[in-house]
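Tokens in:
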């Protein structure tokens, strides 16, 4: 049987639900798609153009970072220092810090500058086996700057071999020009920004920040309804700092994911389970902000809600560019198992992006996105801190 490439003498973690690790495995690809992934003894006699001996290394699906704010200008290191010295978030915000500081820097940057500043962050994730990344806007907070961010994110996918999924996060924070008029800003998001972004095809989904320091459930519902009317999937930052019922609201709109969820209650879990909404946990923000309220992992497990993990890479609350470290944080802080962590950055992360038919497991028909690891057992990917065990990354068969 002819094919482009075969990877032999490998141990496989397919991430197919219920599947056991494969000790002597083989992966074959044709036209950038997996045509076989399983025990070598079960493989047909392939005649590949290229064959790779993996020498017993492990192969997993390429990892998926399904919640990032990777594109932005500037950093907030000085704010971090001020917080360590005792300044409150409110004091920093009054001094021009917080999301508004990143907004000003992002508005001032050119598209080329945004791309250039994001590339090192992206390259750090590529070096850890990431093959798909979600990138949100949300630091422009006006149409042209939001468009600029989304175009920069799409360009990253042209400059590097990675699948980039873009999300419009216009309802992220209230820009200064709308101070005291959150409803007016939501009008602008729904009536001007969203239609223009949809018309250009620049967003794969729409997100919002449902929180006391963000937007109310009623305001967010307007954004979700407008997105659905335009045929765009939705997701939501919900229950990070308080319980406003954002996750249940998102679930009513068939959200792909509800994200953060430290203050999620049983009713929200039940709504997510019924809707098939993925729980996106973000341990980097939990750690960096020194939070103490744990997400209800046991409730999510018992309800069968899929759990995904991501870096939440952003300049203010999770300046994290290591998905491997995010897994370690999730295991240590949230007590997720190794299997849950690995599923959280592969199969369940794909579900959180609506890409479960395209990536996230070593399944025939899916894109041949692989990570080949110099490890003795998969638990090392969660256990080690600061290690870079990636041997090779394969994207679309190359």
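Residues out:
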């Amino acid at each position: 049987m002819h094919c482009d490439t075969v990877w032999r003498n490998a141990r496989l973690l397919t991430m197919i639900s219920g599947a056991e690790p494969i000790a002597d495995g083989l992966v074959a690809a044709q036209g950038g798609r997996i045509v076989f992934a399983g025990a070598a003894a079960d493989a047909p006699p392939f005649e590949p153009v290229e064959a790779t001996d993996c020498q017993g290394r492990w192969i997993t699906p390429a990892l998926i970072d399904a919640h990032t704010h990777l594109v932005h200008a500037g950093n907030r290191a000085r704010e971090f220092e001020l917080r360590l010295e005792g300044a409150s978030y409110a004091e920093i915000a009054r001094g021009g810090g917080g999301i508004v500081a990143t907004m000003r820097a992002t508005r001032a940057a050119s598209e080329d500058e945004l791309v250039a500043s994001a590339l090192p962050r992206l390259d750090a994730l590529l070096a850890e086996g990431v093959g798909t990344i979600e990138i949100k806007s949300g630091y422009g907070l006006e149409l042209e700057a939001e468009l600029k961010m989304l175009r920069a994110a799409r360009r990253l996918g042209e400059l590097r071999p990675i699948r980039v999924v873009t999300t419009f996060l216009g309802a992220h924070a209230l820009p200064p020009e709308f101070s005291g008029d959150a409803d007016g800003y939501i009008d602008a998001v729904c009536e001007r920004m969203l239609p223009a972004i949809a018309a250009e095809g620049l967003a794969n989904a729409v997100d919002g920040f449902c929180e006391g320091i963000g937007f109310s459930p009623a305001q967010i519902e307007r954004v979700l309804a407008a997105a659905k009317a335009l045929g765009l999937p939705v997701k939501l930052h919900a229950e990070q700092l308080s319980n406003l019922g954002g996750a249940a609201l998102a679930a009513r709109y068939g959200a792909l994911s509800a994200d953060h969820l430290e203050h999620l209650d049983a009713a929200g879990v039940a709504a997510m389970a019924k809707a098939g909404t993925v729980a996106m946990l973000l341990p980097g923000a939990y750690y960096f902000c020194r939070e103490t309220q744990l997400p209800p992992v046991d409730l999510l497990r018992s309800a069968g809600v899929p759990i995904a993990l991501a870096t939440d890479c952003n300049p203010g609350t999770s300046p994290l560019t290591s998905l491997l470290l995010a897994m370690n944080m999730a295991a240590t802080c949230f007590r997720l198992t190794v299997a849950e962590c690995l599923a959280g950055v592969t199969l369940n992360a794909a579900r959180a992006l609506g890409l479960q038919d395209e990536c996230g497991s070593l399944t025939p028909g899916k894109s041949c996105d692989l990570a080949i690891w110099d490890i003795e057992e998969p638990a090392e990917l969660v256990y080690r801190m600061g290690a870079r065990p990636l041997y090779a990354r394969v994207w679309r068969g190359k």
